[in-house]
Specification:
single chain, 2 domains, 60% helix, alpha+beta, cell outer membrane, 183 residues, two-stranded antiparallel sheet, Outer membrane efflux protein
Amino acid sequence: MSLFSLFRQHDVLTRNIEESERRLKDIKQMKKEGPITNNDVLRSEMQLTNDRLSLTETENSIALVSQQLDILPGINENCLLLPDTALLYRSIALEKYDDYVAQACMNDPGILLLRKQTEVAQNDVRLAKAEYLPNISLYAANTLARPISRTMADMYNNNWNIGLSVSYPLSSLDKNNHKTKES
């Protein structure tokens, strides 16, 4: 925004310098004819000098702001940025104030962070409540082995094991109550 206003100021000062030069030319012409004093000529020259000085300051400010903006994305610092003026001529449909406030709340990084922290806290509560549930595990195994036998026959024993294990620690009733409330 600063860069845009500086370019606008540059345009205004350029027009002011053109007008001051035209005025100075007219005043010098009128001085030759007689009705204008030397003070009027000096005043016009001072105004022109002030306008040129202001233009130089504005150009330096444009270069400085452009350099600061170049540093942020890592562009060459000598690159002069020009603002896009297409936004000025495009009509923008205004929405209700409440819509803008709701949109700002939805996109605010602080609020987004708080939402994520709330989700993490809710997951912590679910994890703490999960400690109340019993631990259930299902297992299966296959063992192919040669049994110990007194004969020299080549025999193999194939065992299949399938099981379900359920465990419920009774101490979790006391300990998890505090963890759940804390979460």
